[in-house]
Every structure is written in structure tokens, then in C-alpha cells.
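Sample log: Actin-related protein 5.
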Amino acid sequence: MEDVLVLKDYKTVPDIVHEYSPTLKFGHIPLVIDNGSYQCRVGWSINDEPNLIFKNLIARPRKDRCKKDAEPPATPPIQIGNDIVNIEAVRFQLKTQFDKNVVTHFEAQEQVFDYIFSHLGIDNDGSVPHPIAMTEAFVTPNYSRQLMSELLFEGYGVPGVSYGVDSLFSMYKNDIGDTALIVNCGYHTIHIIPVIRGQVIVDHARRINLGGSEMIYYLHKLLQLKYPVHVNAITMSRVEEILQEHCSIALDYQEEIRKWANPDYYEANVKRVQLPYVQTASSSGLTAEQQKERKKEMARRLLEINARKREERLAEDEEQLNQLLAIKDMIEDGDTDEFNEAIKGFDIKSYEDLQRQITNIHMRIEKNKQRIVAAATAEENLETRPTGRLNPPTEPEAFQTWLNETRSKYRELVARREARRARRAAMVKRRTAAAAERMRVISRLAAAGDEFGNQDSDWDAYKSISREADSDSEADGERLMELEEALREYEPPPANSSQHHQLHLAIEPLRAPELMFQPSMMGNLEAGLAETMEYVFKHFSPEDQLLLANNVFLTGGSSQFPGLKERLERELLEMRPFQSTHKVVVAKNPSLDAWYGARDFAGSNEFENWCISKEDYYEMGGEYLKEHYASNKYYKSPAPIVDNSLAPSIDANVVKEEIVVDC
């Protein structure tokens, strides 16, 4: 059995403000931004690693409504990226600048840029004096690029910007040649991009609208439906951790499902994930004998307390009795005035009231004396009194048999009680079988006339229609309490409560990533990864197909699932011709290779030639793009079509007259 896995519940660490050294400030060093829909990676082109890596998320908390009406509501600060320490606390207030993998919300993008430039320490007034190499989605719409360039040039005053595709940067960083079939598995989409001899064949590239986010949502729903008791504990962050660390892609999904149907295989391979829970207070480490002694001691103390109270009450009653007898002696001696004065303090109105109170106190004193004697006898018999009516055997096998019999008797009594209660409830209702049977018996008894009751069997019919006959007997209630007490005392303690807060991951770690190949599992009508690759192959000649199949390049964060490379090799073996070759290459660092490739691109001598300057922006427009080996192709947006059919027609026969009005 595999050990229990513990969730780490990663907490982000807020980013520091980096030093803006003179080398950076006056050296015209390019800034590299890999603007991904899951993570944003930012750094200088002269550094080996990015300075900032954070999730592209913005949390805008709601306004804090003050108790005092005079004070305006305080607006809490906006949290961006790693400043969001507890992401689940603001899950429903998160916002991103992306729609799928395309930037559409530029107000949020501006806030992300503010976060980037402030944490890099850039302190120039009103501008960012560094050219920027920035990634964008494959075939980004011109309108999105136009707004991005407008924000950078007019909002931040950058001297130049160059756009590139993240998957192409990753391909050239891994140096796998100029011909490849790129499979970019992202957070929202999967792109299949054919590159032949350095040229991106845009017409035959395809996109699948599915990525890591859909896998997280799908796994989240699977686990919540499987464990409805732990709905609140199964958060999106924990599901994301499970997906990243414990999920893999099956080589043959159907075969894996058949394996998991075997109980032995399930027990040997299931992954148990421990959810956080509050440990219940542990019981005292006393043995059964010590607990019995403790109960006896508590009973003895209780008897002593009750005996002390009875003695105090007896002394008070005897003192009050002596006072009342003294008052009675006054009336017998003829002291009427003293008698009338004395009875005022005891709320006595007459001699008869005095006699009645004396009698009541006499009776109360006798009862207290009897109780004191009974309590003393009970205390003497406390040591010899049996602890219960059920004494289990001492041998282990006989004890287990006795315990099983006690459980069955307890269940039988409970079932009998529930059946009686159900019968009583059914008899009260009119349209039930029990009520109908009761009415039939009553009608038969009414037909019997005066002869009913002469035979003993007649009373059985009376019992069958009596509602009180099904009431719980006192003997059954006592027996049930006795069995319950015995089970509570002798039944073994329950298992560790931590097992009730565990997730058993069986087929789920394989089922969620399988969406890449079978999107229909979550209702997506698009083709899977293997089908789309086969469709792309069909658009090329056999020679080009062979070149692409021999260099299938996997990149992107969602390509890091174990087993993805082997699964693609198996799919290629099935779709490619007999005895043809194929090869799948995985990026060295699927998440960071795009930034590394953009860094090398920004550090090259020709980087400035591929940048759009501010003059180019004003002359060519914001959608303009200088093409290079890792960029999108630039297609100028067509001029807007003017429809003159809706314009009012001008009649040539209309005579225009000029009217002069004298004021």
C-alpha cells in the first residue's frame, strides 16, 4: 500500500523590489516579458533567469463598508501576482487580462505593467527607457496588438517593442532545426504549428480550445462529486497541486480503466491524499479497570455530597420543628398574645395551620432519615454491586462471538422499534395498507354484533387495530439501553479519524489529462490532439509529412505530464504509414524556454532592427509588426467597407433657392 500523500498548500511569497542599477538605467538594456495566460515571466536580457515569475491574476477586493455612515468606504489595495498570498480567500474576485490566450482587458494589463515596472525598480519619471521583447499568442488579432502597442508607446513611452510567439522562441532555444511540428500545450489552448524550412505554415496550423485550466476544472468537479462531504476542502488550488504533481497520461486509456476494475490492483496502486482536518481531542490513556475505579470514586463522592445535603436538611427541619412545638406549648399554656406574635414570623394564620405544618415537618424528617439509611446501605454495597448485566467472556474468540451477537441483538431491537414506529405512522394516515387493514377489521367486528368478546381470539383482533399495541415496551427500552451501554464499553475504538479526510485517487489522475486526447469527456465537441495532428499531416506531401513526423516538438506548461511523450509516439505509430519513422522531442524546460528564447533574441545584435519604434508606430499604426524568425506574420487590416446604399439619394431635379431674411 502506498504511503499517504500530504498536500503542501503552497503559499506565494511577495516579490521584492529589485535594484535598478546604473548599468540597467543607462545601458539601454532590453526588457524581456513572456506574457503567458497562466504565468508572467519578466527579466533583463543580460540575466540568466527571470527576475519576476508570477500568476497573471489581479484581485480587486470589495470596498470595506465602515460602521460609521459619516466615513466613506475604504477601498483596499489591488493585489497582483505574488501579492495574493491566499488565493482561495479572493477566488471570486480574481480577474485576468486574457480571454483564452488573447489579451482583451487592457485596463488589467496596465495594472500588470505597473506591477512589473515598479518591482523591477524602474524609477524614471513618466517613461520606461528600455526596448521590450514581448511574447504574444499565435495569430494574435491586429486589434489586440494595436491596443498593446498603444499602451506601451503612449502610456509608458518605451523606445521600441518587438513581438514574438512563445512556442517559436522555445523551438529555436532548443535548437532542433528549422522543420518541426510544434505542439504547444498551454493553459487555455493547444496549438499545433507546422514549421517547414524556417517558414511557419499558418494556413495549416490548428488550435484546440482546451488546456490546463479545463483539466483543473474537470478534476475539481470529479473529486467534488466523488467526495460531497469534503466539497469545501477540495479547493481549486489543491486540485491544481494534485494535477501538477500526481497526474499522468495513460499509454492506453481503455486498458488502464480495465486494470482499475480489479480490486487488488486498486488497493496496490490507489493514491491516498490527506486533506487537512482538525484533530479531535484524544481520550485519556486510562485502562478499563482504571476507568471503572474512576467511576466508582465519582459515585462515592456523589453519595457523600448527597448525604451531607440530607443531613443539613434534616438539621434544619428538626430546628424548625422544635420552634413550632415551642409555639404550640404557648397556646396550651394560655399565652395567646405571645402565640399571636410568634406565628407572624412563620406565616401561620391559625392553630390548625400550626398543626398542619408540624405534621408535614414530621413526615419530611422521617423520609430524610429513611433516605440517609438507604444511602448508607448503597455506599456499603457499592464495592460489591455488579457493573452491568452483560458480562463478556475473557477468551478472545468467545469475546468476539459475544460482541457479534450483542451487535446483532442491538440491530434487531432497533429495527423492531423502527418498524413499530413506521406502523403507527402508517396507521394514522388514511391511504395506507395498514389503515385499510385496520378499517376492514373494524367493519368485521361491527358485523359480529353483541357476540364479540365471547372468545379469546376476539381480543387478538382488538390488538391488531389498537395503536397502543405497537408502542415501545419498557422492557425493550431497557434492553436497548443495556445493549448500547455494553457496546459502548466493550466495542473496539473507531479507526483514526484522519482516514475519513482522505481522497483516494484511482482513475482520476489519468482521466483529467486524457481530455487532451478526448475533449468529448467534458462535452467539448472538438477533435483531440491525435486527431488534429493527423488532420494537419494530411495537408502536406509525403516528404514534408515525414520531416514533420520526425521532429514533433512538445512545449508549454501542460506538456510536462508524465507519459505524454510515450502516448504521442504510440499515436504517431498508429497514424503514420507502415515502417515510417517518427520522433517526439520535449523541450528542456517547457515552462521557461519561451522566456529563454526571447532573452537570446533580445540580446542579439539585430534586435533593434526587429523592433517597432515610436516613429513606426505613428506612421504604420499600432497593429504594425516587423516580422522575424519567431514572430507572427503581419497582415494589414483591410480598409473599412463603406456601404453607400443606405445614404440618401440626391435628386438632380431639386432646385436650390437661397432665402435672405432681413432682421
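Observation: The longest strand covers residues 190-196.
Observation: The chain has a mean pLDDT of 85.
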